[in-house]
Amino acid sequence: KLESSYYINKLGLLDSISTFSKNSEKQFTIFKYLPDAFIVVSTGFNTYSKYLFNSKMQTIQENLYNYNNELISKICFYYDDLGRVIKKEKYQNNLFVERTDYTYPSSNSNEFKTLKHYDDKNELKYEMRRTYKNNSEIITSFKNEKQTSEILFSLNKLGEGEIISKNKDGNISLIEVINLIEK
To answer: What number is the average pLDDT over the span 136-161?
Structure first.
């Protein structure tokens, strides 16, 4: 089992997350807020992330640094006129390595319809498609136009419910039950 506790600061923002697993030490993730960015530091890793905002408070760049403050990688985010992410580009050592493109079903939707991931040679590596059926959200993954997995989300408005993952043959590989517990 995995247990996570979320701590909120005086401003109502996420301050930190502590995660405990039977097989590992407690992990902490700490959030530091700045006027034009925020920083995320997690124990157990020798890196930290800095998220830079534009004037609309949208993340336009995610920088990953080592503890010597050396830039390891960056991800650039691009938005449409409605404020939705339409493209992400990742760079390592200032070299382009991958891109992800998003489409949306309509102008009033904030959830992607398709996600297509390309490598540095502009070759499609995989695709994800979102559909809905019987009050469940379904995300189906494809590689070379062949289905590789399917995830069914049956969650209520509070985020409680279950998530069922199926492999390429349609066999269930994981069932995750989510319950909120207030302490």
So the answer is: 93
